[in-house]
Request: fold
Amino acid sequence: MNRAKIQDYIDQREEQRATIFRVEQVDETHFKLNGHPYELVKEYRDGFNADQLAARFSSILSKYDYIVGDWGYDQLRLKGFYSEDNPLYVPDQGVATIEDYLFEYCNFGCAYFIIHNDDVKTPRQRHHRTRSRHSHKKSPVIHERRRRISQPSPNKRHHQQAERVKNGHRQKFVIHQRKKRS
Reply:
């Protein structure tokens, strides 16, 4: 696949996404993205662009309390963060780490914005059934392919000795080298 064809696919996808999400400005700091309320908390170097946000937004971001959008190489990147009262809160993705994210992962001095999700939509937790020991679902079986060792036939093995080893109800044969007689 050449670059021109890849770029065509990217352009088609961007056109499709442009019709999916729409931004309605309520006032200077409040807006709705497909009817979902957000508030612009901070904007640095005119980083907020509603049209670009709508083009890059994904519905998975609606579970985050705060969304940071930063610009690098003329592309908008979005990253979500949780507040401490969110049931999905993880310390690595908490609001307290936004400043660290901006310093470590964003281009130095890049334009960025922070928006607050006024109505967080937490995804429903799937109820995982605990599998009992007697579950009918079997785990996948892994078959090993054994390599044949090229050895002479047992009649011609004068330098080896076979020994039967029992372990409970199981048994195996171990082949040892015979000691040389002096």
Summary: The chain has a mean pLDDT of 83. The first strand starts at residue 23 and ends at 25. Strands lie at 23-25, 30-33, 36-44, 66-72, 75-81, 112-117, 160-167, 170-177. The chain is about 20% helix and 30% strand.
